[in-house]
Design brief:
Elements: H1 8-21, H2 26-32, E1 80-81, E2 87-88, E3 100-105, E4 108-113, H3 118-131, E5 136-140, E6 145-148, H4 161-164, E7 178-188, E8 194-208, E9 214-220, H5 224-237, H6 242-250, E10 253-254, E11 260-264, E12 267-272, H7 276-288, E13 292-298, E14 303-308, H8 311-316, H9 319-325, H10 328-333, E15 339-347, E16 350-356, H11 366-378
C-alpha cells in the first residue's frame, strides 16, 4: 500500500488523468491535479520539519480591518529586537526574553505570545500555513479557528529508482495512503497575551476484503510530535531560531489542574480549580482531542459549539472527485446535532464546565454526558 506501486486510489486517479489527457495538454493536467500532489514537507518554501529530541518518541475580511496601533506603515505588526538579536513578534520581558514561551498539559503544548492580541498574529498564521503547502478550509478570526484542508505528506512515498525516472512523468498517480489536517486555535490570554495551539488529525487508507481488492479510510491517532514540529516552525516564523524554538518546547511550563466531576440534581458538570481564561483554553484543547469538532465559539458567552466529527465525510469533500460530487450543504445536515459546551466562572479561581441546551440549562441526555466524560478524561 505504502510502497511506490500504485494504490487503488492512485490507480483510479491515474485512469481519470489519462482520460483527461486526451482532451487537454500536460500543463492543464498538472494544474488540475496540483492540489492532489501537495507535499507539505518538501514544499520549497517550507524547510524540512525537525521533531524536537524530547518529543521524537512520543472579524470578517481582514483587508477591511484596521491594523493594530503597533503596526508599521505596511500593516505588519511591529517586531522588537531582543537582547539575543531576534526580531521577535512577541514583546520581550524579564520572564520571557524572547517575547514568548510554551506551556503544556500532558502531551499537548501551546505557544504564548507576550504583549500581542490575536489580531496581531492572525495574518502571520495565514501566511504560515499557505506557505507550507496547505489551503485553509476554515479561516475565522472572529472565532479564532483556523483549519487546513486534508493534505497528503508526499515525503511518505519512497523515492525509489522507478519513481525517480519513469515515475516522475505520472508522479500524481503515487499515493502515500495517508491524509493530514491541522487545526489552529488562537485565544486571548489573561494578561494581554495570545495563546496558539496546533492539533493534528489523520486518516489512512487500508486494504479490505479477503483478496485485498477494496479499500477504506480509517482514522489514525494524532501525532503530538508533528504538532510540536509545526509549533516550532510557527515560532521561527515569529522570529526565533530553530535552536531557540526547540529549547522553548523542551522547557515547556506545566499548566494543569485536575477536573472534578460534580453530579447534582440538575445534571453532571466538571469543576476546574483555575480562572476562566486558563479553563477556556484547556477546554478548547480537550475538545480537539475528542471526536468532537468545534464549529464555532463565543468567548464572551463562554460557549463552544461542537458536533461529532466524522472525518470520513470530511475527507470525501477533498480532492478532485469530492469537489465534483460532494454536497457540503447536505454533509453539514448529516453531521448530527450541535452541542453547546459552556465554560462559566464561579469565582476567581474556579470554573464550571457543562453541556447545556439552547436555554442555558444543563443537558442531561446520554450524548451530553458522553461529552462530559470525554472532557473529564482529557482534562486529567
Amino acid at each position: 500500500m505504502k510502497r511506490s506501486a500504485l494504490s487503488l486510489h492512485a490507480t483510479r486517479m491515474a485512469v481519470l488523468a489519462l482520460a483527461l489527457g486526451s482532451l487537454a495538454g500536460c500543463e492543464s493536467l498538472n494544474d488540475m491535479f496540483a492540489s492532489d500532489r501537495v507535499n507539505y514537507k518538501d514544499t520549497p518554501s517550507a524547510p524540512p520539519l525537525a521533531v524536537p529530541q524530547d518529543l521524537s518518541s512520543a472579524p470578517g475580511d481582514q483587508k477591511y480591518v484596521a491594523p493594530p496601533p503597533t503596526a508599521t506603515l505596511g500593516g505588519a505588526t511591529q517586531r522588537t529586537v531582543t537582547a539575543a538579536g531576534n526580531a521577535t513578534l512577541g514583546v520581550p520581558n524579564t520572564q520571557d526574553p524572547l517575547g514568548m514561551h510554551v506551556e503544556r498539559d500532558g502531551d499537548r503544548r501551546w505557544l504564548v505570545i507576550d504583549g500581542r492580541v490575536p489580531a496581531d498574529v492572525w495574518p502571520q498564521l495565514q501566511e504560515f500555513w499557505t506557505s507550507n503547502g496547505f489551503t485553509l478550509a476554515t479561516d475565522s478570526p472572529e472565532t479564532g479557528i483556523m483549519t487546513t484542508n486534508w493534505a497528503e505528506n508526499r515525503a511518505n512515498i519512497p523515492d525509489d529508482w522507478f519513481r525517480r525516472t519513469i515515475g516522475r512523468v505520472i508522479d500524481f498517480a503515487y499515493s502515500s495512503g495517508t491524509r493530514d489536517r491541522f487545526r489552529t486555535l488562537v485565544s486571548r490570554g489573561p494578561d494581554g497575551q495570545t495563546d496558539i495551539s496546533v492539533t493534528h488529525s489523520a486518516m489512512e487508507e487500508v486494504l479490505t476484503g479477503q483478496d485485498k481488492t477494496g479499500s477504506k479510510w480509517v482514522e489514525r491517532p494524532r501525532d503530538p510530535a508533528l504538532e510540536a514540529a509545526f509549533l516550532s516552525k510557527i515560532m521561527q516564523k515569529f522570529g526565533l531560531t530553530d535552536a531557540q524554538s526547540k529549547q522553548l518546547l523542551t522547557d515547556a511550563r506545566p499548566s494543569s489542574s485536575a477536573a472534578k466531576v460534580a453530579a447534582g440534581p440538575d445534571g453532571t458538570t466538571l469543576d476546574l480549580p483555575e480562572a476562566f481564561d486558563t479553563a477556556w483554553l484547556r477546554v478548547g484543547l480537550a475538545l480537539d482531542r475528542t471526536n468532537f469538532t468545534v464549529d464555532n465559539r463565543d468567548r464572551q458567552k463562554g460557549i463552544y459549539y461542537v458536533r461529532y466529527a466524522d472525518s470520513m465525510k470530511e475527507l470525501k469533500g477533498d480532492g478532485l472527485l469530492g469537489k465534483l460530487f460532494y454536497n457540503p450543504k447536505k454533509a453539514t445536515n448529516e453531521q448530527g446535532p450541535e452541542f453547546l459546551v459552556a465554560v462559566r466562572s464561579t469565582s476567581n479561581a474556579q470554573t464550571q464546565v457543562a453541556v447545556v441546551n439552547q436555554n442555558g440549562q444543563i443537558d442531561t441526555s446520554s450524548d451530553a454526558q458522553r461529552i462530559v466524560s470525554a472532557l473529564h478524561a482529557q482534562l486529567n
